[in-house]
UniProtKB/TrEMBL annotation:
SUPFAM superfamilies: Cupredoxins (SSF49503). One of its GO terms (molecular function) is electron transfer activity. The lineage of its organism: Eukaryota, Viridiplantae, Streptophyta, Embryophyta, Tracheophyta. The chain crosses the membrane at residues 141-159. One of its GO terms (biological process) is nodulation. This is Plastocyanin-like domain protein. The gene is 11443272.
């Protein structure tokens, strides 16, 4: 009889683990599908910050920078380089082939710009304190998960006694 209890527990754990759903990572086109990544966005220097404020970015979401190769680039900057428009630091990641997809791979702020001459100072830099990656959340509520676990446990215990 103890074997049935162990098997029941293992099956319940497997079924519950499989039934819990998480929100999948999403792709966000920086600046939207129409504007994209450009030197002179409408609304000037605040355009990308305002755009990003419309979203809640989660860990492992992707930012897609749409631009033509050769006309722009994307660099990932730290806050100091972002504020100073220092896009030539040898330690920064640079992407020159558009479109560029960047995964928000840590929790915190992300700072981006373009390396082409003058583009950073001419507004092609994005986002101060708005690209904050939040941890992914479960789409299953704790109550639903608890109910599912209780129901499955009762069902397996009932079936094991038949």
């Amino acid at each position: 009889m103890p074997q049935i209890t162990n098997v029941t527990i293992i099956i319940v754990i497997i079924v519950v683990a499989m039934s819990l759903q998480t929100i999948e990572a999403e792709d966000y086109t920086v600046g939207g599908d129409v504007i994209g990544w450009t030197s002179f966005p409408p609304g000037g220097t605040s355009f990308y910050s305002k755009w990003a404020a419309n979203f809640t970015f989660k860990l492992n979401d992707n930012l897609v920078f749409n631009y033509e190769s050769g006309s722009h680039s994307v660099v990932i900057l730290n806050k100091a380089n972002y504020e100073e428009c220092n896009v030539n630091d040898k330690n920064i990641q640079t992407f020159n082939q558009g479109p560029t997809k960047i995964t928000l791979d840590h929790i915190g702020n992300f700072f981006f710009s373009c390396t082409l001459s003058g583009h950073c100072s001419f507004r092609l830099k994005s986002l101060d304190q708005v690209f904050t990656a939040l941890p992914p959340q479960s789409s299953t509520t704790p109550m639903a998960a608890t109910f599912t676990l209780v129901f499955i446990t009762i069902a397996f215990n009932f079936l094991s006694h038949i």
